Amino acid sequence: xxxxxxxASGQHSMHAHGKMNGAAIAAPLIDGQPPQAPRERGVGGxxxxxxxALGIGASPSQEGxxxxxNVDVTGLQFAWLFNYKETGINAGELHVPIGxxxxxxxxxxxxxxxxxxxxxxxxxxxxxxxITELRFTPNKLGTYPIVCAxxxxxxxxxxxxxxxxxxxxxxxxxxxxxxxASNPDLQTAVAINPAELSEGEFLAPYANENQLSVxxxxxxxxxxxxxxxxxxxxxxxxxxxx
Length: 242
What we know:
alpha+beta; Immunoglobulin-like; 12 strands; about 20% helix; CcO_II-like_C
């Protein structure tokens, strides 16, 4: 259950930190006690998550220190959801910055799933009512498929996502873009209701020559034609008998 692929070699693009060499579960359950069934919440009957250190945790030098990026990963039939607690971003794919330690805190909403990045030989179970952990440092830019390696239902084969290892600059740009998308207040500021604007306010963005894709000379001619047309209309009105 969980842990790294037993066929893993040392030649991959991640540094994963294991607490027990050769063990699939880095920190075992309490000695002498069988695993307990998830405790039920009082509302909704959803299992209460139990803080048990299953999986691959921090290296000895990083023990007790927070990772640079913390992401809550939820597996459910049939998708992966990623929540960045520090920013409140919710995403359907995993973005991480190169060279910075990442901690994934993983759980499942329904049945057991297995979070697997084949190219990096990283694999860990996600279990209802339990939190499993995967901690690593990406050191190669690229896009890596994420699949579920535990048969979980009819559409198990479609339970896929991807991890994008970004440069620090690209990662910050992605965070900024998704902060706007996930913040209702910012969405309101960006998506101004055109019905509430005056004609001048509505047309102002289009008066810029860069947005019209015309050069200064063409814009000048257009303005002269507009003035001439307006003058003709005024002359027509003044010479018309009502």
